[in-house]
Amino acid sequence: MTETATDQPTGRLLRVAIVGAGPAGIYAADLLGKSPQVAGGEVRLAVDLFDELPTPFGLIRYGVSPDHPRIKGIINALHKVLEKDWIRFFGNVALGRDLSLPDLKARYDAVIVATGAQKDADLNIPGIELEGSFGGADFVSWYDAHPDVPRQWPLDAKEVAVLGNGNVALDVARILSKHADQLLSTEIPDHVYEQLNDSAVTDVHVFGRRGPAQVKFTPLELRELSHSQDVDIVLYPEDFEFDAGSDAEIKSNNQVKTMVSTLTNWLVEQDDREENPEHVPASRRLHLHFLQSPIELLGEDGMVTGLRVERNELDGSGGARGTGEYVDYEVGGVYRAVGYFGSALDGIEYDGARGVVPNVEGRVLDADGSPVPGLYATGWIKRGPVGLIGHTKGDAQETITHLLADAPAFPGVQVEEPIETLLHERGVTYTDWNGWLDLDEHERALGAAAGEVPTRFGPVTRQRVKVVERETMIEHSAAREFAGNP
């Protein structure tokens, strides 16, 4: 096991296992390495990151739209962290399948859970079980080519609805409405491109229960809607209601002010466009609806045929209340994007109401509400699926501060046998950092081999093509040999 995070070899060795190699887990490792205790030589680090996927980067690779190059660029910063010689990556290793919590606690001084939240939050309204009702997170996993989701996605409805007013809702709506040719410059794999290219979707309706001043997406996400070619954004004047709470938000929050300004400018441009006799309507439309709450999914023969919403009004403080007026929309598909939800972990207490691991500032609690020695949490599995990727750093700092404060009382590891020995004995084919570098090179080579592709918007040069099959990923990124304890 590589044992140093500093040139000073005199400090106590602290072995830490992090379960989850997405941004939350990698930021936690990075902050450990930058801590005063490590920088001053008081503590030496050996950190192992485990992930059930064969690749690192979690949400960045499998939860961010492929046409988000700026956010994808975060991988470059995370890459620099994983290059450090005191960090190792073990992919294709799942807690509860390949390793147990006791396995980790016996071999590490501390364990940090950073598994995030991958599944869709429930939306309990009538008809949600109908065929044609989808989870937004499931759709994201499909177009991001997650290895464990089906390869096929039904895109045969002309009009679809997206429920939610957060960034994920806008991502889902943008991908559904965008022409697939515009995605060829990304890492999108062929099967996703081909199905999106054959999509029957012409109209995507996004519904938010409050007004334009209460949306949860960011200005960047909103502006990206206007970058889709041959797609008209459609707004409705009756949805632009502002109360005292809205006015206060607009005046005090520059982000809200920017988004409201963008939306109202689009509304003016829409009027100008409709009055221009020479305007040629786009072949697709993305409708933004505000002040409407989903009440029921309508269906026939088990299939979604429509969405019933209730018109809302603002309550004076920025909240919304129903008016008793209902509107039905004919849609053949409904995507709920009302939030993510964390999953239970083997051997660790779980709050099923919130989808998190019970904790106090990152110290994980047992069934009696007492801290579990040496067990910590960070990221969405700690605080719930709120905040942007950047917020994860501050969250990890809180957890790391407590871990280092507790470290002097850690009893030391019980088993000196390295974790790779145990994985080898159990027949687990794990991937490592060098393997990821090989896979990364392979995906770039696939893009280079595709070369320049003609599209309706002009030629596009492919940069990379994401590998989809887990077996292929493992083939290219499995640890090259069983090395024992270096």
Task: Note down, in words, how this protein is organized.
With 486 residues, this protein is of the alpha/beta class. Helix content is 32%, strand content 22%. It is built from 17 helices and 20 strands. The chain has helices spanning 23-33, 36-39, 58-62, 69-72, 74-82, 101-107, 136-143, 167-177, 190-197, 219-224, 244-252, 254-275, 380-383, 391-406, 419-425, 433-450, 470-477, and strands at 12-19, 43-51, 87-91, 110-113, 119-120, 133-135, 159-163, 203-207, 231-234, 284-289, 292-300, 303-314, 320-330, 333-336, 340-341, 359-360, 363-365, 371-377, 452-453, 460-461. The chain has a 7-stranded mixed sheet, with helices on both faces. A 6-stranded parallel sheet has the order 6-14-7-8-10-9. A hairpin with a 5-residue loop joins β17 and β18. α7 crosses α8 and α16 (433-450) crosses α17. It is globular.
Give the key terms:
NADP, 17 helices, FAD, 22% strand, oxidoreductase, ferredoxin--NADP(+) reductase, 486 residues, 6-stranded parallel sheet, FAD/NAD-binding_dom, single chain
